[in-house]
Amino acid sequence: MSIPGNGEGPAVHPIEVESYRILSSLVDLSALRDADRSIVERMIHATADLSSAESARLGDHAAAALQTALATDAPVIVDAAMVAAGITRYPTECWLPHVPVAPDGSTRSAAAFTLAAREHPDGAVFVVGNAPTALFELIDMFERGVVRPAAVVGLPVGFVGAAESKAALWQSGLAPISITNQGMRGGSSPAAGAVNAIVRRVQAAKQALR
After folding, report:
1. H or E segment to which residue 209 belongs
2. Could you say which DSSP state residue 173 is in?
3. Mean pLDDT, the chain, as a whole number?
4. Pick from 55, 175, 191, 179: which is nearest to 131 by CA?
5. What angle do helix axes 162-171 and 132-143 make, rounded to 10 degrees?
6. Residue 11 has what pLDDT?
């Protein structure tokens, strides 16, 4: 178990340290690579949902791709303000306010990702914690060569389209650089948590160089 503040960034509150101690007593993540383990731990910590230990899907290059992107100040595009609010130590962009009305046959979230992709066609991190339509749109844009993300966190939640969009992500060419899960569960908290886990690692690496 990798306790935050123990070589992974700024010191944290004792309650969080105790939370991680309890987490480690309830689930065994030792088979995961260090960075992958940090991500899944943070997803579980954000939700108290131990099922993430089984449902999480991390591409072979996802953690490294996300860490490289964040270490080089890549844009982080989020699908909802709640995701932005949860990513506490890295700037994010939410394009939803630029789409006051959903276009015909689409949704505001999908249209917002379309706008974001036009602004950041290469090298951005895309984070979905709410809208399956945004994730479907991202996959479609990637397959059409419109956007080339540095990394993807795809964890939309809900009964309509969430599981399907995440399955589509895992079957797409984005899978190696993607963090997602199986099923209907997800949300802003685990999506932000996955990013925060790597933000801590980037901060720790920078501190080690000082």
Report:
1. none
2. T
3. 92
4. 191
5. 20
6. 61
Of 148, 145, 146, the residue nearest 126 (C-alpha): 148
Render the burial of 67-77: b for 16+ CB within 10 Å, e for the rest. Answer: bbbbeeebbbb
Closest CA to 187 of 36, 39, 79: 79
The 10s digit of each residue's pLDDT in 147-206 is 999 999 999 999 999 999 999 999 999 999 999 999 999 999 999 999 999 999 999 888
Tokens 């979905």 found at: 128
**Sign, CA torsion 37/43/46/48:** negative
Single out the residue of 181, 173, 172, 115 nearest to residue 153, CA to CA: 181
pLDDT digits (tens, 9 = 90+) for 108-127: 999 999 999 999 999 999 99
| DSSP codes of every residue in 9-71 | SS---HHHHHHHHHHHHH---TTS-HHHHHHHHHHHHHHT-TTHHHHEEE-TTHHHHHHHHHH
Set 13, 45, 98, 120: catalytic member: 45
pLDDT at 7 over 80: no
Give yes or no for a contact between 128 and 154, defined as CB atoms under 8 angstroms apart: yes
Active site residue 45: yes
3 state DSSP class of 203: helix
Residue 144: alpha-carbon gap to chain centroid: 22
Contacting residues for 87 by C-beta, under 8 A, at least 6 apart: 76, 78, 127, 192, 195, 196, 199
Nearest Cα neighbor of 179 from 129, 143, 105 is: 129
